[in-house]
Design brief:
Layout (H helix, E strand, L loop, with lengths): L23 H6 L4 E3 L7 E4 L4 E3 L4 E3 L1 H9 L6 E7 L4 H12 L5 E10 L1 H6 L4 E4 L4 E4 L10 H26 L3 H9 L2 E4 H6 L5 E2 L5 E3 L4 H15 L4 H12 L13 H6 L2 H18 L2
Parallel strand pairs: 2-5, 5-6, 6-7, 6-8, 7-10
Antiparallel strand pairs: 1-11, 3-4, 8-9
Helix pairs in contact: 2-3, 5-6, 8-9, 8-11
Length: about 290
């Protein structure tokens, strides 16, 4: 298919102060070490991180970065290697529009996961390939809001047209009915590689040797695990990031000689984080009895 037949996504951020966070379920199922087996060439873009600026890696997939990369390619065919848990919906819609309007042929390869905002970006491909063991995840926009009932209604009203636009994009890509896509979004649907091809979300499966697993940076994994645990407890994103940034900045060592390296600090949290996970699991199990 051609991306020219796909609808444009709404642009901008109509409601100041509202941001869209990563879903804990997507973070749990995302294996951040999955990458393309072959080396990147000059016409390859890697989307192997959260959509929007990611404070844990200091990078993230942003519209500004993708736009700059495409400008340097001057309309040549481009391959996008993707493995992302999603993130900022507005940023994802902006990147979708950028890819949709690109003059060259766009091939998107879902190496592991294209969840939430990342799944919308993937829809902009002229050709979409997905790993047999890979997944797409589609759902309605997800955010954390605070306020009275009037403010909650404003947030819900603001999100509705964006959800409708995303459903329209999925319907155009698959040839399915809008109501069917909205039902999948309402149910927060995970779509495996083969099912994605069968249902028209993807065009074909990737070859099994197209992906590999690299090595994860221990400090980054620890930071994201801690963030996930705190998110599950309902802590707002801003508070979570402030807390983890304090930890990453280092703490004085017992001997009082200087400050511990941030990577070492986060790496030493691996076991405490694991213990916290076990404690929360025990608490959850006890609460359901």
């Amino acid at each position: 298919m051609t991306i020219r037949s796909l609808p444009a996504a709404p642009a901008g951020r109509p409601c100041a102060g509202v941001s869209f966070d990563l879903m804990p379920q997507a973070m749990e199922r995302w294996n951040s070490t999955i990458q393309a087996a072959d080396g990147d060439d000059k016409n390859t873009i890697s989307m192997l991180d959260a959509i929007g600026f990611d404070p844990w890696s200091g990078e993230g997939v942003t519209a500004k970065r993708i736009s700059a990369a495409l400008r340097s390619m001057n309309g040549a065919d481009v391959t996008v290697n993707m493995n992302s848990p999603g993130g900022d919906m507005f940023e994802g819609l902006a990147i979708y529009n950028i890819l949709r309007e690109y003059k060259g042929h766009v091939t998107v390869k879902v190496l592991g996961l294209a969840a939430s905002a990342a799944s919308i970006i993937a829809m902009a491909a002229d050709e979409l390939q997905v790993a047999r063991s890979g997944f797409l995840m589609i759902h309605n926009g997800w955010t954390i809001a605070a306020g009275n009932r009037h403010q909650f209604r404003e947030v819900a009203d603001m999100m509705e047209p964006f959800d409708a636009a995303m459903g329209d994009i999925y319907a155009a890509r698959t040839g399915g009915e809008l109501k069917a896509m909205q039902a999948l979004m309402d149910a927060e649907t995970w779509i495996g590689g083969s099912a994605a091809v069968e249902q028209g979300f993807a065009d074909s499966l990737l070859e099994s040797d197209s992906i590999k697993e690299g090595k994860a940076q221990a400090s980054l994994v620890a930071a994201r695990k801690l963030d996930l645990l705190l998110a599950k407890q309902g802590m707002p994103r801003g508070e979570r990031r402030s807390l983890i940034q304090e930890i990453k900045s280092g703490t004085p060592c017992a001997t009082g000689h200087g400050t511990q390296d941030a990577a070492d600090t986060m790496a030493t949290l691996a076991e405490p984080i694991a213990e916290l996970e076990r404690a929360l699991a025990r608490f959850s199990a006890a609460a359901t009895k």
